[in-house]
Specification:
The protein is an all-beta fold. It folds into two domains: about 70 residues, Beta Barrel (OB fold (Dihydrolipoamide Acetyltransferase, E2P)); about 110 residues, Sandwich (Immunoglobulin-like). The protein is built from no helices and 17 strands.
């Protein structure tokens, strides 16, 4: 099997949990350990293992495409997760008032604390500084630090908002450009339970 590591380029392995499998198109959609979506080509050679939703796989990158390498776990995890609990927001941030936007909330799901929902109207920190924008419910278990780049209406390709979830329950944002977004989507921000 050809891989980037075969040619001395670098190790390019990831662990993913399969969320969608389309055998007809030869593609799968997985989520890696950092909560990022990964598109995977289904090119299993010399095996009778069929990829299924919920399985954990090791994937390898082959000059741009990710391929299934090894099945790590085949039991079905709880993809529905626990009950969604409301977040406590601060520094002017509130739940988005736009119809159809999900409320800001958190839940325990498959060993992770994950956030969801769209917030708006708050203040932002100076470029490169963190600002606490809320906290998760104290009833959720202890967690490690987590972070993710969050969707927003931040303009341009050079600007981004990084969200942080800290062990004390604080939710923070950091901006890379001087701009106040009118909304931020918290989906994708999560931290592993200790």
């Amino acid at each position: 099997m050809r891989s980037a590591s075969t040619y001395g380029l670098a190790w390019s392995l990831k662990q993913v949990t399969l969320r969608e499998v389309n055998l007809a198109k030869g593609l799968a959609l997985g989520i890696d350990t950092e909560g990022q979506y990964v598109e995977i080509r289904l090119t299993i050679v010399r095996t009778g293992i069929a990829p299924k939703v919920g399985q954990r796989w090791l994937v390898d990158r082959d000059f741009g495409d990710w391929h299934l390498t090894a099945l790590l776990q085949s039991t079905q995890p709880d993809l529905t997760g626990g009950e969604w609990l409301p977040l406590t927001l601060s520094n002017g941030w509130v739940a988005s008032a736009t119809a159809g936007d999900p409320p800001p909330r958190a839940r325990l799901s498959d060993g992770w604390i994950e956030l969801s929902g769209i917030i708006s109207g708050g203040t932002v920190p100076a470029v490169g500084s963190d600002l606490v924008i809320g906290s998760i419910p104290v009833t959720l278990p202890a967690r490690y630090k987590g972070n993710a780049v969050l969707a927003s209406n931040l303009p341009g390709t050079n600007g981004f908002i990084r969200g942080g979830l800290f062990p004390n329950g604080d939710i923070t944002i950091r901006v890379s450009a001087t701009f106040t977004p009118s909304w931020i989507d918290l989906t994708g921000l999560k931290a592993r339970v200790t």
